[in-house]
Amino acid sequence: MAGFGKGFIDFEDLLPMIANKVGVDGLINELCNGFQLLMDKDKGVITLDSLRNNSILLGLHDFEEDELVSMMREGDIDGDGVLTHMEFCVLMFRLSPQLMEESWFWIEYAIHQQLNDHSDASV
């Protein structure tokens, strides 16, 4: 997937920088914002049409039709032809090899935060 269009090269470099700069919560917020920008507002999911029509907002205007179709196919885990929020987030992580390598750090960090929040609430 790293060879898709010019946007993914930049994306692979950008997403880890965002994660390091804004932390887990900030990264999740950014992914939510990206999903919101690309989704079909009526259906609440990303369709091929909404990806095609809204991708320019995220700087993906250099993508060819076959690249958009491949991206949808790659991210569509359940095979229903659309991307849910979770499928979109998984796809974004898969497209960023550095984040995949760092994913255990982020999981441990999130668990640690959850445990701290829980212990603070019980005091």
TrEMBL record:
Gene Ontology molecular function: calcium ion binding
UniProt keyword annotations, A-Z: Calcium
Domain of life of the organism encoding this protein: Eukaryota
Statement: the UniProt record of this protein carries the keyword Coiled coil: no
Gene3D superfamilies recorded: EF-hand
UniProt keyword annotation of ATP-binding present: no
Residue ranges of every copy of the EF-hand domain listed in the record: 63-98
Record-given protein name: EF-hand domain-containing protein
Organism, scientific name: Lupinus angustifolius
